[in-house]
Design goal:
Two copies of one chain form a homodimer. Chain A is mainly alpha-helical. The first copy, chain A, has a single domain, classed as Winged helix-like DNA-binding domain superfamily/Winged helix DNA-binding domain (Arc Repressor Mutant, subunit A). Chain A is built from six helices and two strands; from the N terminus they run H-H-H-H-E-E-H-H. A two-stranded antiparallel sheet of chain A has the order 1-2. Chain A binds a DNA duplex (30 and 30 nucleotides) through helix 1, helix 2 and helix 4.
DNA sequence: CGATATTGCTCAGTATGCTGACGATCAGTA
DNA sequence: TACTGATCGTCAGCATACTGAGCAATATCG
């Protein structure tokens, strides 16, 4: 009988579980209340001003039905704005607010600290190897989830 | 500016996302309707008959408030039973049913297939190295989440 | 024994993620 | 131009995960 520890799926769940806990703890210590998902969305909005929700979802591999709620909460916190697009009346253009920019700037050390803590059991070399292997496995399985990563069309 | 792909936390989320999608697809192909979480719980109940909910949660690193709903659904599907403990009237003893045993047996190939698909982008050696590194990182961060893994007291 | 602390379980509330469906809009084509 | 299909956003419903609270029962200690 296979042990849970031999199941990559189980290890994936555990690793993600710890990653979220560490992120929330570090961010809370810094005095902020932002989830990993909200952080990634906000950072991506800042890097791609005026993008629509579907594009945002593709850039960070979220489901389009999930992104609605995430943006709702960013807007409610005053960190982002959602406005109608002039070119496509179906789409909403997303912008980061000054408050969102301030939050991102102040929260960055906590986010980086969280990434370090997550790998604290590994050497630098091992940490890099883990990320390389994860990237490789993820690339091979990208299209297997409903919300694949989509590179910008450029 | 750090890319998402340099964030182990982001990679963790993506890998887990794909793992769940692959698991559900393989299991559905085999004609069953069981989530990864429900599968792990059921397999652990089978391996440890009569265990209580807190012990089960510890063995698979689930939160105690999460396990309640998971068991609800296993019971509702007729795969497990929850009965009062005679030694501790707070506790519930968990048992797998014959139907649960049958389901586990028939579903095993799909579960194993899912694990293979999840690593299909990696060589055998790389897959093993990924699991080793994940285990190591998880062990170091085990106590950082609200639901750490707890080995049986033996 | 009795007060206190701890433990097992549940519940309410919040936040991801997903399936499947829908209305509104846009794009391509006959 | 009218039709068809695709796309954008949203919604309802379900299943994890978590926080924090609470009840009932057990354990511990003075």
């Amino acid at each position: 009988m296979k042990d849970n520890n031999d199941m990559p799926g189980h290890l994936a769940r555990r690793f993600q579980q710890i990653a979220v806990a560490v992120f929330l703890a570090e961010v809370a210590d810094a005095g902020f209340d932002l989830t990993p998902v909200q952080y990634a969305a906000l950072a991506t909005i800042k890097a791609n001003p005026g993008l629509d929700q579907v594009t945002l979802a593709g850039l960070i591999a979220y489901d389009r039905t999930t992104i609605t709620g995430v943006i709702d909460r960013l807007v409610q916190k005053g960190l982002a704005e959602r406005r109608a697009s002039s070119r496509d009346r179906r789409a909403r253009e997303l912008e980061i607010t000054d408050e969102g920019r301030r939050t991102l700037r102040k929260i960055t050390p906590a986010v980086e600290s969280a990434q370090r803590i997550l790998l604290r059991g590994l050497s630098t070399r091992e940490g890099e190897e883990l990320m390389r292997l994860l990237r490789k496995a993820i690339a091979a399985g990208n299209d297997l989830s409903r919300a694949p990563l989509r590179s910008p069309d450029v």
